[in-house]
């Protein structure tokens, strides 16, 4: 009976040897319909299938085979489930217990899942589900309850597990499940949960599948369409994460959960439960009345004006209705739900749609100064057409104007490459050496340096040892290698392996699945960010580079008439902080032992704007307190690439103070171009970065705070220190940052780090 123990491989094809294609899907019984029509609950029974083929002959009614196949790579990992509904029986609670007298009287012989009966063959090796378990909860008796993954919160969930939790609400209610902690392996091929709108894992009724990490300010919540829900947890052999904790409850099923009549000239409406997941099988109709289909979106969608909208839209979507009323319909089908939408509506006078503002071609109204500024604010570029370009703009051949920041940064901003022509690059077929000059493309990566600086060998899979220069990386054994940025790129390039030593820096414990609209950071997202306080208030930012040392800006520690900022006893450093004035168990407050301002700091030109701070005692590193990587002196941060600025707002100047740590994505500006734009106020010790397309201008960087560059390996490097240009990310003004690579040797000499 116990296949695994007997050493036999689990063969899921007991019934039919044709394998995958032979699995038949019969339509699932619609549980809600049965309930509504007959007042009966259909009886669903999970059948453990392994070695139990005989059960099949006993069933009456509808039999549904569920074939749980996780995409191609996972063909070896399958689970089979059967379910059966007996439609002529009224459901009573004792049917949940197959040993009850009532159940036995049904005359159906059923095997429920028990440990070791369901196995997952993985990578051709049979793996038994060591803890396959089913829990059942009836919500009516206890209004809410908690579900946790095994071991939570004290230990990670177990390997090779399949667990299911069945939730029954009372009739006339929905089941609501809210995860307040969720941290699973990032790869949904490996560990995942699924939530079903049914009591058995029917593919057609999956509401959602989740893995990875959800931060606390983005809770995960799902609602069923009827009064049942199933949660399953599947884990594989490796990498066990903390798991999850969820609260279940029931919510009354209302006939009118959403939709309705909207009047007035302005308003907002959202999908049900927004920003949580909307329930499956939902239809909402809004009649908008001051003012009014194709097959583009066959599944869940919003329909307005016969136009269906679905999918993820990072930017605003505008629908214009040329009528004095409209209807908006939201529909979700049986499976896979998401967080839905929020929408604003506004009535307009057709003859003057945007009084006092600019009317985009899509009828969005934007403030006049946003036209012809080089940024697409309408979403259809109509605010950037027919413009006369300003002196700080590039006149693109296609008629657009773009900010001059974006000249010669290898990103085609005009769309027709106007901004990337005349950048002194070589003819096609030639390779441009980093320090100028052109060589034939064939000489690239041939193992011999042909450019004077060897840069033709700098972006190759193999690194060559060559003469040291400002374009090579120096290994600990003093050999210099040709590869560009070989540090912590997960390939050993130095003979002594020193390029891959000490690569724990710049790792973020939490994985950040998708960058959501807002600019608030989440806990542990920037664990090197420090808040420096003087006299109880936040004054500057800093970055953690070791358990003892911080990097900040020299101008932060410059004395003025009122405060001796250069004195360590003036300062308090808050590490692991997310919200100002809200310390938590991860937050550590430290005093300083010493401050080392760069001896070459020039308070007029802001040249060498960098300083070091030593903590009075080493800080214990944690998931929220972690050092950033220091780039080697020859590390290249090329123009055109994204970097992140973070901070609570610059309070030294006339900024605002944000309460939650803010982040903003900016783009590195070509330094030759920046020098021109800033009219010679920059030095080679500075680098410039500007707001990205679609970005908002807000003052998000703190003086002294980090400019973080996320390398493809996932390690984050400190590219810069917020210095001047307000430390703000402003559309038409680049931010200027201290170029950290210039100070690598000084930092090493001063701190040993
Ligand atoms: C809306 O327009 C129709 C004609 O298109 C008109 O008959 C109706 O009175 C209008 N309703 C309002 C509220 O203006
Ligand atoms: C920066 O722009 C100049 C022209 O202004 C160009 O020669 C140079 O190659 C650019 N630098 C980079 C790294 O693209
Ligand atoms: Ca614009
Ligand atoms: Ca460009
Ligand atoms: Ca390497």
Whole-number mean pLDDT: 77
Distance between the termini: 61 Å
Shape: globular
Name the bound molecules: 2-acetamido-2-deoxy-beta-D-glucopyranose, calcium ion
The largest sheet is: 6 strands, antiparallel, barrel
- Residues in β-strands, percent: 25-35%
The helix content, as a percent range, equals under 10%
Poorly predicted parts: 1-85, 108-131, 512-518, 651-655
Structural class: mainly beta
What kind of assembly state do the chains in view correspond to? single chain
Q: What is Rg?
A: 31 Å
How many strands? 43
The largest sheet has its strands arranged as: 32-33-34-37-36-35
Number of helices: 4
Binding site for Ca(2+) 2: 273
Protein name: Suppression of tumorigenicity 14b
Organism: Esox lucius (Northern pike)
Binding site for Ca(2+) 1: 185, 191
Q: Mind explaining what this structure looks like?
A:
Ca(2+) 2 binds at residue 273. Ca(2+) 1 binds at residues 185, 191. One of its GO terms (molecular function) is metal ion binding. The modification (3R)-3-hydroxyasparagine is found at residue 273. By secondary structure, the protein is mostly beta strands. The protein has four helices and 43 strands. The strands form twelve sheets. A six-stranded antiparallel β-barrel has the order 32-33-34-37-36-35. A six-stranded antiparallel barrel has the order 38-39-40-43-42-41. The protein has a five-stranded mixed sheet with strand order 6-8-14-10-11, with no helix packed on it. The longest helix is centred in the first third of the chain and has 8 residues, at 31-38. The protein starts with 30 loop residues before the first helix and ends with a helix. 38% of the residues are buried. Residues 1-85, 108-131, 512-518 and 651-655 have low confidence and may be disordered. Bound molecules: 2-acetamido-2-deoxy-beta-D-glucopyranose (2 copies) and calcium ion (3 copies).
């Amino acid at each position: 009976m116990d296949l695994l123990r007997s050493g036999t491989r689990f063969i899921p094809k007991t019934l039919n040897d044709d394998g995958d294609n032979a699995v038949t899907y019969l339509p699932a019984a619609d549980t809600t319909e049965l309930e509504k029509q007959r007042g009966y609950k259909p009886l669903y029974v999970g059948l453990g299938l392994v070695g139990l083929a005989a059960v099949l002959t006993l069933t009456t009614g509808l039999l549904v085979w569920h074939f749980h196949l996780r995409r191609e790579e996972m063909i070896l990992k399958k689970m089979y489930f059967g379910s059966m509904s007996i439609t002529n029986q009224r459901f009573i609670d004792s049917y949940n217990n197959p040993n009850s007298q009532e159940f036995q009287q049904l005359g159906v012989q059923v095997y429920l899942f028990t440990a070791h009966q369901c196995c997952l063959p993985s990578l051709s090796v049979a793996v038994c589900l060591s803890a396959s378990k089913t829990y059942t909860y009836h919500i009516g008796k206890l209004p809410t309850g908690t579900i946790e993954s095994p071991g939570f919160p004290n230990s990670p969930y177990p390997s090779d597990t399949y667990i299911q939790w069945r939730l029954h609400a009372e009739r006339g209610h929905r089941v609501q499940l809210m995860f307040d902690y969720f941290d699973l392996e990032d790869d949904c091929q490996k560990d995942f949960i699924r939530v079903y709108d049914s009591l058995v894992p029917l593919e057609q009724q999956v509401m959602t599948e989740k893995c990875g990490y959800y931060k606390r300010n983005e809770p995960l919540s799902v609602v069923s369409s009827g009064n049942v829900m199933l949660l399953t947890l599947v884990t594989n052999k490796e990498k066990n994460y903390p798991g999850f904790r969820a609260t279940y409850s029931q919510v009354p099923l209302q006939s009118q959960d959403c939709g309705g009549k909207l009047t007035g000239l302005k308003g907002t409406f959202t999908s049900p439960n927004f920003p949580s997941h909307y329930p499956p099988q939902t239809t909402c109709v809004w009649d908008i009345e001051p003012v009014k289909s194709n097959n583009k979106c066959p599944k869940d969608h919003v329909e307005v004006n016969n136009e269906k909208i679905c999918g993820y839209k990072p930017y605003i979507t505008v629908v214009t209705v040329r009528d004095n009323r409209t209807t908006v319909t939201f529909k979700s089908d049986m499976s896979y739900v998401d967080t839905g939408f929020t929408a604003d509506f506004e009535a307009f006078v057709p003859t003057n749609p945007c009084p006092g503002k600019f009317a985009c071609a899509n009828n969005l109204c934007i403030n006049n100064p946003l036209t012809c500024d080089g940024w697409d604010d309408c979403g259809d570029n109509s605010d950037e057409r027919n413009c006369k370009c300003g002196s700080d703009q590039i006149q693109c051949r296609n008629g657009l104007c773009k900010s001059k920041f974006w000249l010669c940064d290898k990103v085609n901003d005009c769309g027709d490459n106007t901004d990337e022509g005349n950048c002194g690059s070589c003819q096609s077929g030639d390779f441009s050496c980093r320090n100028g000059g052109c060589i034939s493309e064939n000489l690239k990566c041939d193992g011999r340096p042909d450019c004077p600086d060897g840069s033709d060998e700098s972006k190759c899979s193999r690194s060559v040892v060559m003469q040291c220069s400002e374009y090579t990386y120096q290994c600990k054994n003093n050999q210099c290698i040709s590869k560009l940025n070989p540090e912590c790129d997960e390939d050993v390039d130095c003979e002594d392996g020193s390029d891959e030593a000490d690569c724990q820096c710049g790792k973020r414990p939490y994985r950040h699945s998708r960058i959501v609209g807002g600019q608030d950071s989440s806990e542990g997202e920037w664990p090197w960010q420090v808040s420096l306080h003087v006299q109880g208030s936040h004054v500057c930012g800093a970055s953690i580079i070791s358990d003892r040392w911080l990097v900040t800006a020299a101008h932060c520690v410059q004395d003025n008439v009122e405060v001796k900022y250069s004195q360590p006893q003036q300062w308090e450093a808050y590490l692991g902080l997310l919200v100002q004035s809200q310390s938590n168990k991860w937050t550590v407050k430290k005093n300083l032992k010493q401050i080392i301002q760069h001896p070459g700091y020039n308070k007029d030109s802001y040249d060498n704007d960098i300083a070091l701070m030593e903590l009075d005692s080493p800080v214990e590193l944690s998931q929220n307190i972690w050092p950033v990587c220091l780039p080697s002196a020859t590390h290249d941060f090329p123009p055109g690439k994204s970097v992140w600025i973070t901070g609570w707002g610059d309070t030294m100047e006339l900024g605002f103070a944000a309460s939650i740590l803010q982040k903003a994505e900016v783009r590195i500006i070509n330094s030759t171009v920046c020098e021109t734009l800033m009219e010679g106020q920059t030095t080679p010790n500075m680098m410039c970065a500007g707001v990205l397309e679609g970005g908002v201008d807000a003052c998000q960087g703190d003086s002294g705070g980090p400019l973080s560059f996320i390398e493809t390996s996932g390690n984050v490097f400190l590219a810069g220190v917020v210095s001047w240009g307000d430390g703000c990310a402003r559309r038409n003004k680049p931010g200027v940052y201290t170029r950290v690579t210039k100070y690598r040797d000084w930092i090493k000499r001063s701190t040993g780090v």
